[in-house]
Amino acid sequence: MDTIKKLFIYFLLFLALFVFVGFMVNVAFKKNEGKYLSNYTINIDSPKVVVTNSRVLYDGGKIEGYIFNDTKEHIRDKILQFNFYDVNNKYLGNEIKEIKYFNVEEKIKFDVSYNFKKVDRIEILYLDEKVEMENSNNSKIADILNTDSNTLKIAAPIAAVLTLLMVIP
After folding, report:
1. 91 and 81 in contact (C-beta within 8 Å)?
2. Is the full-model pTM beyond 0.85?
3. Which of 79, 85, 105, 168 lies 20 to 30 A from 46 at CA?
4. pLDDT tens digits along 97-123
């Protein structure tokens, strides 16, 4: 009877730990749910580019808007390139939107999703061909471990201690 009681207590502790860790992870990600990003640079005079919505999430984001051909001529085979930078102005990467054929006075919507962490600034370029920049963000593991979330910094050691207490009776 004593053994069953002990196993039941271990099961309850495991269940409580599971619920606690799940709750703490949800709280940590809820704080980083997303914010609107207004720090973007449009390096295009013509055609006109308008950003209608720019949202940064924990592990990526989305930028929406439209491009309007006000040049009085047809445009063929151009690229709208989005360069992403962090707070320290470090280049994170880019996404492109290809424009195959663009009529006069035409409005084309764009919706670009990206998977870069901690984006602080977006630069929008209008190019004839894709320009590659050197990506200085090589370590994905370092980005996962280097977090600014205080909740996650508190929850991880608590979860580790509770897990060790359950494993070592």
Report:
1. no
2. no
3. 85
4. 888 888 888 888 888 888 888 888 889
